[in-house]
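Annotated sample (chain length 181).
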Amino acid sequence: MSEKDTVIIELQKEIARLEKKLAEFKEKHRVDEILASLSKEEKFQFIERLVTRYPDRFRVEKICETLGGISRSGYYAWRKRGPSARDLENEWLRQEIMRIYKASNNQYGYMKITQILRERGHLVGKNRVYKLMKEMGLKSLSGRNRFLKPLKLKKAQQLSDDQEHTILKRYLRNKNATAEE
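Output written by the structure step:
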């Protein structure tokens, strides 16, 4: 056997070992389930974080391929376009909701806040206010709800460093497989 064949065999053994370790890790941390549950926006944000953190190490094309369902052009289009009018309006609405919520000493719920916003002349639906308040972690503190339970993390925040590490390993494995072809 040549030196090249020996190196190839050793690399194949290492890949098999890492794949076994990855399978155990996946079972433990459900990385694929979390990735599948992420929206495109959250995946784009994750790609942005990786590219910003490790600019010399990762190629956007390979990260998109690793995450699945994301195109490189889609990512760059996402980066290029600014926040939509709806996003800007939601940001303003969040600030208004927070002002009203704090002014009520954390008493008002989404129905009362919607009513106040409408009285001020803003056309807003109760479901939108409810969704924004839920995203912000705001709840009415009346009666039994005075003691808030800890907020659950959003899907995008559920990726731990170990899970990010697993995704990075998958990226590197895909990159190496492409290089061998």
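Annotation: The chain has a mean pLDDT of 80.
Annotation: The two ends are 22 Å apart (CA to CA).
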